[in-house]
Amino acid sequence: METKVYAARIKDKEELLASSSGGIFTAVSDLAISEGDAIVSAVYNYSSNRNEFTLYTSKAERDKARGSKYMQAIPGDSYITAEEWLKNNKGKVYFFGMGCQADGFRKFAKSRGLKDRVVIIDIICHGVPSPKIWNDYIGGKIEYVTFKDKTDGWKKPRAFIIRNGEKEEISEYDRIFYGDWALRPSCYKCRYATTERKVDITIGDYWGIDRIMPDFYSPDGNSLVLIHSDKGMELWKKIQSKLEYKESDLVECIQPNLAHPTNEPLNRVEFWSDYKKGGIDRILKKYASEKMKTKIVKKLKRVVKTIKNR
Ligand SMILES: Cc1cc2nc3c(=O)[nH]c(=O)nc-3n(C[C@H](O)[C@H](O)[C@H](O)COP(=O)(O)OP(=O)(O)OC[C@H]3O[C@@H](n4cnc5c(N)ncnc54)[C@H](O)[C@@H]3O)c2cc1C
């Protein structure tokens, strides 16, 4: 079918504020849980400080999966766990992951004859940083991490961790993320930075919505939803009553990572060489300073201007 495009957000304000964008992940996973299905998505493991694909069937577990985490998620044995769950249960598995991960799961499900029992939702992705840098940065045990706290609104997300009960800003790490040096090499050649995808639904932030549909924009969060298949449309109809939504199209919703992969910074090799020689302290000093912040803000402004001029 032809891809259908929507701007959307979950009606429940508490759920919206707890989500990174418009809470579509919560609306879909609520439905899955209520119908006895399972979900596989990235969950931050506070014991190992790793972002791990995990299978779960409860709201309590799902709540832990919420929120964008700016480090690559590790698949582990999640595909096999999903296959086993499908063998032992009657329901479906909903898979949420980045374009590359979701396509991997799609191919796996097809090869195991499980295509009809999985629903695949991929997430628009700017690229994911190396988990090694995250682990070096964080150093030890933490109790909580968020990259998209909405206290100042969806457009100005705050990133922080909680360690020993105290809040610590992680804006330096955020700057490394947005500077694009730490992304995986494959991210600069991403085949999934397009609106043409083989999954059922794609979700992301609806950037530019305040200009495109000012009457629909909410400072609390706005999702972009691309529906690619009949299965996706069936799912969309089932969650509509939980959402506020408005139809859009593939031209007005376009954003950089739906058009092309993130550009590799010219000094990426230098960044990694600095990291190998001087470790995390050296790259924080050289690449995450306030001066670098000004450069990144300028770059982001240029990206926003390019989108506005389209
Ligand atoms: C590294 C990263 C880059 C992104 N880049 C863009 C972008 O350029 N443009 C855009 O429109 N949107 C981007 N997003 C997506 C956006 O931030 C939201 O995650 C998405 O819109 C879902 O929001 P929600 O409110 O529906 O769900 P939420 O409740 O916030 O749930 C987040 C979902 O994402 C999954 N998730 C979180 N972190 C990861 C991860 N590292 N790897 C795999 N799955 C993860 C969770 O398991 C959950 O399924 C990015 C997300 C991440 C993690």
From TrEMBL:
Q: Which organism is it from?
A: Eubacterium album
Q: What is this protein called?
A: Coenzyme F420 hydrogenase/dehydrogenase, beta subunit C-terminal domain
Q: Which residues form the Coenzyme F420 hydrogenase/dehydrogenase beta subunit C-terminal domain?
A: 92-248
Q: Which InterPro entries does this one have?
A: Co_F420_Hydgase/DH_bsu_N (IPR007516), FrhB_FdhB_C (IPR007525), Polyferredoxin-like_ET (IPR052977)
Highest taxon above the source species: Bacteria
Coiled coil stretches, renumbered: none
Concerning PANTHER family, the annotation shows: POLYFERREDOXIN PROTEIN FWDF (PTHR43193:SF2), PTHR43193
Can you give the residue ranges of the Coenzyme F420 hydrogenase/dehydrogenase beta subunit N-terminal domain? Answer: 5-76
Q: Which residues cross the membrane?
A: none
One of its Pfam families is FrhB_FdhB_N
